[in-house]
Specification:
single chain, 13% strand, globular
Length: 580
Amino acid sequence: MSFTLHGLGVSGGIAIGRAMLMSHATLEVSHLTIAPRMVDKEIARFEAAVALVKSELLTMKETTEHAPAELAAFIDIHTMFLEDPELVDKPCEIIRERRCNAEWALVQQMEHLVGQFEQFDDPYLRERKFDVVQVVERVIKELLGRPGKAVLKPAKGIKEESRIVVAHDLSPADVITFKDHRFASFITDVGGATSHTAILARSLAIPSVVGMENARSLIRDGEQIIVDGTRGVVIVNPDPRVLEEYLLRKNQIELERSKLKRLITAKSQTLDGVDVQLFANIELPGDVPISLAAGAEGIGLFRTEFLFLDRGDMPDEQEQFEAYKKVVKGMAGRPVTIRTFDLGNDKDIRPDNNANDRVHTNPALGRRAIRLSLAEPRMFQTQLRAILRASKYGPIKLLIPMLAHAHEIDQTLAALEQAKSSLRGEKISFDENIQVGGMIEIPAAALAVGLFLRRLDFLSIGTNDLIQYTLAIDRSDEQVASLYDPLHPAVLMLIAHTLASAEKVGIPVSVCGEMAGDTALTRLLLGMGLRIFSMHPSQILQVKSHVLKSEINELTPAVRRMLRLDEPAKLREALEKLNS
């Protein structure tokens, strides 16, 4: 029987193949009471399991030198969890206090940590809860005496390149296990756009759909599956007509991808000779090779939050410096824009804080991003000094997130001068003229953009948050996700106002949100005056292909007429005409 499942398409393309189910361990463990004399032995059993899993991860990383950089980075995250007192010391305390078995103590602490992660505002951080679960699952397997790698159940007679992995979730370690294989697709019950599965699928250019809820239980081994990673659709046992249609679409996509690769060395310029810069957004230093391979002209957004993940303290200056330096040297003279960390007060970067003090009704509107940096001057100085030191090795721009007030800029510039002064005193060289820019992601900042243009060297529009704040929609809340609309007239007005205001005074502006990588909006943004796009590396060539076929002289007047419309239906009709 044919049926269709819907999820979140996180890596585009079409895969057609046969299901290969991946088994997964259950975390439903028994609660046992142990004798007082057995407590120390139970703790030792737990510590031995943690040590063994950590050793396995380290060995796995050493033997995967040819795997994508993201895989090694996520193994680093899992290894850091196994060094975090919250995950390795707390269960020991629970065992001792409650005289319980190690499995139950670990699961109790895991549930506590998952609850904390679910309160994070940042979707990338929130989805790290899946990493917590996966690490715990590996330790539980050791404790229960069922260690080993992920178990796949391939149906007989199916070629590997036609296999579609169906799992409840995939850990980085699972994907490392598959590194010598060429699977057609991954589909999972859980995960989001910034989950590790999504990031890994994009880096491997494998169509992927996540967040399907019940795919693992509904699909059987060997069933034929169509995965549409662009539309987020999975068709199980398709009828011949649907299969034929998707085979045709798959061949067309593969032909287009082959053509796109020819554009890597092509100059990013419109038909009428206007240069357009295409930069990459990265989350990890290991993203640099992927960005270069896609033809990125630089890094338009380096999200430094990755350095702050999954630890009870802040990475020291040297650790940060090495990470920034690696990115700058890797880009070999191309510009790198480093955003100071964009975390909220819902993330514990100070181990002595009480967790209850960090719970806020709406962390998106709380003390986060630059607000938190300015409230923690020692932490901010550490990051600024590390960024400045790295500027010796290549062109770095400093980007400040979530600005809303002029005094925030003034305080940031004062903090930067303090960091410069301290480095001068230590005779450490850096770029004295490092450029400082600000994120326009709050409507107030867009409306009062003159305040920022007078104080900063460049601007970057973060459309994800700008849309969220303008429309009062939590983009991670599935109940209102349908209302998240980049074509809302108010959103377009704010972007257009920012671009026009900056153009008058000669200040460069980029867009680094999801809109920059959406080819349906490329011509619209060009017509609005945007000349710097920053996006996921996998989107660069597609956007470039649209740039090469555009003519600014035609787009500009058409977009001006379009921006006068305030009816959503008419706006979408005008956009279709613009792209035709």
